[in-house]
């Protein structure tokens, strides 16, 4: 990598994680796009200042940024990243852990969807990684705490696919109420089976929504417009859309609903949230739909409840283990339950397609890729899910001797005083700092910095005990 840090021999061979992840990329990361240009623009040439300094400290070039995109990230996102001049490798599937560990060693940016597990065990090999883009809503697949503590920022797309999920829910509610996937399968096999027994209109029925966030509240509006009554349960007190009504407990919801849909994130509290005891509380002949995460529903308990007729129909979009890519065999994923699931009547099984529409994927591609570019080029953490949100108005590269310092550090007393002692030798034009839990993020634009001083400035910050990661953009 033609970067400044390569020119700094004393940093070679440093072997602790925090030091090695801060290698050349961070020191020399420079804005190679004009800060006044939008970040859709292709990289332009370096600023005069950066070009002039190239002999002493080669500025970071966007062409050096290595990006790995897994799980078929949409072309919209790929194009934005490529237009920056980054090296983008895009793969259609996720990777097994050992392959991921090999690949992640080298990259500065990784883009994933819901399948790829970025555990601490994987991330500890990611020596150059500065940012993770989840091109989806859920972030349970990433060890967010470990990432923050090692200075890796994580972004997602908080609502670009919510509507797609909500619309699928409406389709499934009607499909289950009319048993129409069974009728369709029968007719595909040549069997004419015209029945009305156990088939219902949805008008006047009660939908119980568990988790009234982006998806749940969209679904609420759509369901009411079909004449359904809506009740919802959430750990937070939330204003209901239309005439929907929040209930005090999960039990209240289960007892009061004809259809139950789940839209909670995967957390310790939501694992097996719907198991035998909860299913027993549901109305006889009720329906259950899970498009949240596979661990939320105890699948063997659901199978038993459907076999007994307690539950009249179910739709599952998510599973505890999902195949890594298209074409892979689903049979092996659920071990003992797959056969039982497949033999049930009135159950819709879909391959995690809740957010899989052209509209959602295209919007997610743009949203997450833009956040990644903003972070790589400018250090902006707006909408990050594991770091404090910090931004400053654009750095003016055209002004000579301007530098942006990013200092991710442990949130302990006394750090700001020491950092500002270091920055205080220069003119601090603007500065912002914020903390989130144990991690704090400081961004400062300083002027009156000669290129020859950047190395010392960087090293002084690196030497502070509180340091997690230092980046100097110039
Ligand atoms: N099947 C698919 O393709 C998709 C699945 N999802 C899943 O759906 C989940 C929900 O998505 P959004 O609505 O966008 O999330 P959100 O964050 O907007 O809403 C989640 C809601 O669940 C509530 N909640 C959290 N823990 C709870 C608990 N223990 N009990 C009751 N309520 C609880 C929160 O307070 C929040 O209101 C995501 O976390 C993701 O796992 C999201 C998009 C697509
Ligand atoms: O957005 C989410 O959380 C989803 O579950 C959708 O995930 P996907 O992008 O289809 O892997």
From TrEMBL:
- What domain of life is recorded for the organism? Eukaryota
Q: What is this protein called?
A: D-3-phosphoglycerate dehydrogenase 2
């Amino acid at each position: 990598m033609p970067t400044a840090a390569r020119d700094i021999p004393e940093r070679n061979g440093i072997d602790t994680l925090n030091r090695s992840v801060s290698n050349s990329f961070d020191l020399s990361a420079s804005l190679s796009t004009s800060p006044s240009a939008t970040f859709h623009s292709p990289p332009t040439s370096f600023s005069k200042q950066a070009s002039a300094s190239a002999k002493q400290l080669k500025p970071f070039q966007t062409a050096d940024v290595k990006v790995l995109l897994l799980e078929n990230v949409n072309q919209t996102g790929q194009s934005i990243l490529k237009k920056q001049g980054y090296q983008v490798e895009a793969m259609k599937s996720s990777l097994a852990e050992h392959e991921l560990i090999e690949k992640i060693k080298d990259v500065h940016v990784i883009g994933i969807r819901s399948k790829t597990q970025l555990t601490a065990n994987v991330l500890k090999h990611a020596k150059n990684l500065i940012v993770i883009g989840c091109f989806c809503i859920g972030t349970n697949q990433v060890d967010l705490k470990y990432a923050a503590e090692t200075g890796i920022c994580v972004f997602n797309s908080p609502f670009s696919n919510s509507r797609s999920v909500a619309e699928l829910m409406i389709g499934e509610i009607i499909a289950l109420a009319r048993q129409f996937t069974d009728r369709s399968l029968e007719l595909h096999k040549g069997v004419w089976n015209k029945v009305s027994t156990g088939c219902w209109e949805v008008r006047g029925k009660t939908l119980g929504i568990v988790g009234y966030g982006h998806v749940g509240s969209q679904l609420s509006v759509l369901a009411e417009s079909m004449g359904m009554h809506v009740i919802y349960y959430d750990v937070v007190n939330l204003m209901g859309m239309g005439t929907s009504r929040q209930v005090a407990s999960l039990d209240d919801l289960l007892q009061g609903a004809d259809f139950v849909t789940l839209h909670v994130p995967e957390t310790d509290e939501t694992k097996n949230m719907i198991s035998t005891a909860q299913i027993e509380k549901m109305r006889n002949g009720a329906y259950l739909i899970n498009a949240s995460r596979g661990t939320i529903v105890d699948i063997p308990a659901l199978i038993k409840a459907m076999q007994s007729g307690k539950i009249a129909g179910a739709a599952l979009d998510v599973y505890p283990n999902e195949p890594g890519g298209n074409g892979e065999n689903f049979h092996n994923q659920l071990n003992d339950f797959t056969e039982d699931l497949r033999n049930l009547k009135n159950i819709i099984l879909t391959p995690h397609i809740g957010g899989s529409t052209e509209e959602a994927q295209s919007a997610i591609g743009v949203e997450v890729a833009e956040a990644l570019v903003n972070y790589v080029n400018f250090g902006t953490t707006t909408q990050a899910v594991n770091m404090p949100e910090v931004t400053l108005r654009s750095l003016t590269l055209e002004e000579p001797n301007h530098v942006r310092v990013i200092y991710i550090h442990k949130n302990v007393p006394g750090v700001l005083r020491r950092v500002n002692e270091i920055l205080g030798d220069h003119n601090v034009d603007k500065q912002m700092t914020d903390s989130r839990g144990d991690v704090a993020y400081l961004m400062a634009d300083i002027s009156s910095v000669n290129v020859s001083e950047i190395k010392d400035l960087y090293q002084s910050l690196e030497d502070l005990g509180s340091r997690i990661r230092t980046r100097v953009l110039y």
